[in-house]
# Entry
Amino acid sequence: MEHNFKVERSMAVRNRISQVAMEKNQIEKCKVYEHYNHTDSCRFTRWTARECYQYMYARPWEKVNDFYLDLVNQRSNLSDLFSVEINYQKRDYVDAGDMPETVVECKEAPGHSKDQSGRWARSTFKIVVSYHGKSFDGWQKQPGLNTVQGLIEGVIGRFIDKKKAQQLKDKGLPIEGSVAVAVAGRTDKGVSALNQICSFYTWVKDVNPQDIEDAIDTAGRGILRVVCISKVSRAFHPNFSAKWRRYLYIFPLGEAEEGRAPDWSEKVENSLLTKSPSELINGSNGLIAEERSTANTVDHMAWVEGKLKPMNFSVTRVNKLLEQLEGKLLSYKMFARDTKASRNIGPPTECFVYHARATKAKLPCSSMGDEQVIKVMCVELIANRFLRKMVRVLVATAVREAAAGAEEDALLKLMEATCRRATAPPAPPDGLCLVDVGYEDFGPRKCFIH
# Structure
């Protein structure tokens, strides 16, 4: 009797799950995706969210991932991308003594002397790590996923004090992963980092930093490497002590983007207008396709939803769009994702962008020959803080606006939008990299792109 009841209940649950799944699929089929109602002169040439998504992902991102892996393993250097000599590792992170006084010798809390005892007699270690984003499921530790935080915490758990280790052992809990690691900024899945800053503290007196470095490097196995590790003041916090962060986005360019910028005064040949959409569209998806240059067609235009839309953009135009953001404290809520656009609690959405530039470069990679080197657009963004997915949305929106021929203040105007559909969907995470974090005042000399 009891067995039959369990079987019937199990069948009812399965039927309910199937019914919910069918209802969800039906809702998805009937769902209408509304586009933001742009009212400017570029509203007919601006890509939709789906068109922008397909344009962004139809790129050789594996080449960018290979380059970031070479950077992590020190087979390449950012100097190979830019004409300036870049030695960021030696500049800021090789030795704790090279760090600014505000970080290494932080002022002691009131009422505490430098010679602390008891619970204050702990050691704080600052770890600078470089990792390949494609090999991890992001920074934040999550059950069943390969994350950077999970790997590091699993290693340094052996360096906690013996008393706490015994307490965990008595409770039947693992020692590995029992140490909480603070970080300068959590990166999403697929986002790489060259100088990510994290820290942890322990009450063990005889911890050798080299032992920690060797343990993490062994666990990293070519996808995560310790740049340096040092002991710092207990007042140091990798996030709250930071004054600026630098992100680099590498965007592979196609043949069209390597050429001239779109000429918006150019007239479309009559032969182009007489062709059917199927003849004009180059590709199976029918949404975004690149017209090859011929005598009677315009190579940067394609037929999309009955309109002629641009298929390439000017890197110079992207640079001018981003340059308008420099030196301003603005709310980037329209460029954020997974964050409430309007909230009364939590961190504000205002960010101060120190530097925002874009330039062309050639992507070097040890796995490619000279004939396979591809041209890329490098976007450098430096700000006091960044919102969730803010960099990727900024890059995608700047590319979209540059292709549409928008004015130089287009990004500033989009900040006054009433819906996040006004901005483009985030660009692929493969191109994004957290280059470094600054704990001293920002200066223009630190920029890669001038």
